[in-house]
UniProtKB/TrEMBL annotation:
Domain of life: Bacteria
Bilayer topology: Multi-pass membrane protein
Bilayer-crossing regions: 12-35, 47-75, 87-116, 128-152, 164-183, 189-210, 276-296, 308-329, 349-369, 381-400, 406-425
Keywords assigned by UniProt, alphabetized: Antiport, Cell membrane, Ion transport, Membrane, Transmembrane, Transmembrane helix, Transport
NCBIfam families, per database record: matE
Annotated coiled-coil segments of the chain: none
Localization, UniProt: Cell inner membrane
Name listed for the protein in its UniProt record: Multidrug resistance protein NorM
Annotated organism of origin: Photobacterium pectinilyticum
């Protein structure tokens, strides 16, 4: 397969995935904008609720994308479409117990908010908002796994189109239920949660309609149960990695918060800018994981190296351009979020430094995703955690203890991207031996 054809396949997956993730972020921003009109307490309650929701979705995303997604892509590549459909059934089976477990927390949501040092008012509002989300989270979980399934089969345009439709629906329901317009009840903060649940239900409904109309293979429940173990085996290491990463990153943020208030605020703005900037990298990483898994399933190991190389080049192009803009004009990015001069200075410092490391960050995305596609999940997760502590957490702690400037801490975060990229590129090359590829292919179906 030539480079032009591979580049097309990468972009077919990467662009819709990146846009879908951007639309997810846009939905959050729209919710916050509308809730902000109600008051500070409401805004805080929603913000905390979204943090808690993203944590639970992150667990599912890692479990399904790394576990179910890899299996679906491999089986699709091997033309074992019935087995791929049965993996979807296995993901359904896993999702429902997790949903039931989550609903047990509904009576304790206010206590959970208080655990994070919120006020009683915010905790009460959070109980309405996050409690409603938990009650309807089955649709959120199904949305996550169906998105994973379709991307893994190579159809990434459908999730993007569905997200565009549901984004508009979410705005409409927010307008109706938050403020009580057009005769609807004014539910305030609970109305925002209800709007999210209804919009996500709409997503799931559209997915199911497409599945029915496309004459997909019927799910064989007996065979689906057999895939649960494989999904958990591949997915759990990624879940543990993500959980450890989140805890470690919270510790790093606490170190940054020990500096001036403008530094803490500037970092939050800079990190938000970076989160938008690396969307192309997330899209190309999804393409790498999907295509590598598919070629493994199809026993086309010669195309694995080609697609990873092409994906790496595409990623470097997109993230290199964005990184250059961040490094050259960081203040323009910071001013989108604030007018405070000191905050702009500190935000621009982080944006400029991290902008110089966007290319290695993108390579890290691509090669870790490719390693997962090869089936190297557990060791990749372990290496990522070890590198996080060796390259960022411990050096950051030393910098703070020595009372060095925050510029050193920001530089450590940027330099870690370079080290991580080099480590994972080297590991990928080592695992491309013929004997390892034969072993991986033997587990594809």
């Amino acid at each position: 397969m030539n480079s032009q054809s591979l580049s097309k396949q990468v972009l077919i997956i990467a662009i819709p995935v990146s846009l879908k993730i951007f639309l997810d972020m846009a939905m959050v921003l729209i919710d916050l904008f509308m809730i902000g009109k109600l008051g500070t307490a409401e805004l805080t309650a929603v913000g905390m609720g979204l943090v808690l929701l993203s944590g639970s979705i992150g667990v599912l995303d890692n479990l399904f994308a790394t576990g179910g997604g890899i299996l679906v892509a491999r089986l699709t590549g091997a033309n074992k479409h019935q087995s791929a459909t049965n993996v979807l059934g296995a993901m359904f089976i896993i999702a429902f117990p997790l949903y039931m477990l989550g609903t047990l927390a509904i009576p304790f949501v206010a206590d959970l908010y208080l655990l994070f040092q919120t006020t009683e008012e915010v905790a009460e509002l959070g109980s309405l908002y996050f409690g409603t989300l938990l009650a309807g989270s089955v649709f959120i979980y199904l949305d996550v796994l169906l998105f994973t399934y379709f991307v893994s089969t190579g159809d990434s345009k459908l999730p993007m189109k569905i997200k565009i439709a549901s984004l508009g629906l979410n705005v409409v329901f927010n307008y109706l239920f938050i403020f009580g317009n057009l005769g609807a009840p004014a539910l305030g903060i609970q109305g925002a949660a209800l709007g999210t649940v209804v919009a996500t239900l709409f997503n799931v409904g559209l997915y199911l309609v497409v599945i029915k109309r496309s004459c997909f293979n019927s799910i064989n429940a007996k065979d689906s149960f057999k895939h649960i173990k494989d999904i958990l085996k591949l997915g759990i290491p990624s879940v543990v990695e993500n959980f450890t990463f989140q805890l470690s990153w919270l510790f790093i943020i606490s170190l940054i918060n020990s500096y001036a208030a403008s530094v803490a605020a500037g970092f939050q703005i800079g990190y938000r800018v970076e989160s938008i900037a690396f969307l192309p990298g997330l899209g190309t990483a999804a393409a790498a994981a999907t295509l590598v898994s598919r070629f493994i399933g199809a026993n086309k190991s010669e195309d694995v190296d080609k697609v990873v190389l092409v994906t790496a080049k595409v990623t470097c192009l997109f993230m290199g351009v964005v990184g250059a803009l961040m490094a050259i004009t960081p203040e323009s990015f910071a001013r989108v979020f604030t007018n405070e001069p000191n905050v702009i200075i500190d935000a621009a410092l982080y944006i400029r430094i991290i902008g110089l490391a966007q290319v290695p960050l993108g390579l890290q995305f691509v090669y870790t995703a490719s390693l997962r596609g090869l089936g190297d999940v557990s060791k990749t997760a372990l290496i990522k955690v070890v590198l996080l502590w060796l390259n960022i957490v411990i050096p950051s702690l030393i910098i703070v203890q020595l009372e060095l400037g925050v510029v050193w801490l920001f530089a450590v975060i940027a330099f870690a991207n370079i080290v991580d990229a080099k480590v994972f590129i080297s590991r990928f090359k080592r695992l491309r031996s013929p004997s390892y590829m034969a072993k991986v292919h033997g587990t594809a179906g």
